[in-house]
Design goal:
There is one protein chain. By secondary structure, this protein is α/β, with parallel strands linked by helices. It has a single domain, classed as Metallo-beta-lactamase, Chain A. It is built from five helices and 13 strands. The protein has a seven-stranded mixed β-sheet with strand order 6-5-4-3-2-1-13, covered by helices on one side. A six-stranded mixed β-sheet has the order 7-8-9-10-11-12, with helices on one face.
Length: about 210
């Protein structure tokens, strides 16, 4: 799977069969990456700014793209009538596109409908927590789906608001048995603060094979 960090907590996943955007946002410096993407599916963890961006989403409107969304994002998407195939996902929902299975899992955030996602391309598993705190139910949710641990975890480390700090994110990575963990959402913190043995610091805007 080729993965590109597109700013803040945005991610672009591509494996030659499926292109998936997670929380796309037209951040300065990454606009070209997003606008050149031809997503089959867009995943929205919740409707807070930086994760749900109307300007970005409207760039993809009218194509019938499938959007897998938390309840807050699902409802927000409806307000501006964009032409998407909207799919409401609560924790434990499952949806498949082009041989990739998308599982939604619990997130602990001040948006009570926020979710994280696990992407399973039959070769590897990729966990995108979205905005969440360290939480035992979140850990159990992930391990219920991937008993042996996920191959890659993408975890926020800013510690701002209801978001894990670098220490809590590293602890969560250990608890879910992550093979590798990639820090995201660290505008106010250095990725060097993320003290996980198998951390991968991926430069923003650089496609990386994982």
């Amino acid at each position: 799977m080729r993965v590109t960090l597109t700013g803040h907590a945005g991610l672009l996943f591509e494996n030659g069969r499926v292109t998936a955007l997670v929380d796309p946002h037209l951040t300065d410096g990454f606009r070209d990456i997003l606008l050149s993407a031809t997503p089959d599916v867009i995943l929205l963890t919740h409707a807070h700014p930086g994760h749900f961006d109307e300007e970005t989403l409207k760039c993809f409107a009218g194509r019938g793209i499938t959007v897998l969304a938390s309840r807050s994002a699902y409802e927000a998407l409806a307000t501006f009538g964009a032409g998407f195939n909207r799919v409401l996902l609560a924790p434990h929902s499952v949806y498949s596109v082009g041989g990739v299975t998308f599982y939604s899992v619990k997130a602990e955030h001040n948006d009570p409908t926020a979710v994280g996602f696990i992407l399973d391309d039959t070769d590897k598993t990729y966990y995108v927590s979205g905005d969440t705190l360290y939480n035992f139910d979140v850990i159990d949710d992930v391990l219920d789906l991937v008993e042996d641990g996920v191959d890659y975890a993408f975890l926020p480390i800013s510690g701002s608001g209801c978001v894990m700090n670098a220490k809590d994110a590293a602890d969560l990575a250990y608890e879910i048995g992550a093979g590798y963990a990639v820090p995201v959402h660290y505008d106010a913190h250095s990725a060097a603060d993320f003290d996980f043995e198998d951390a991968m610091i991926i430069p923003f805007g650089v496609p990386t094979e994982l």
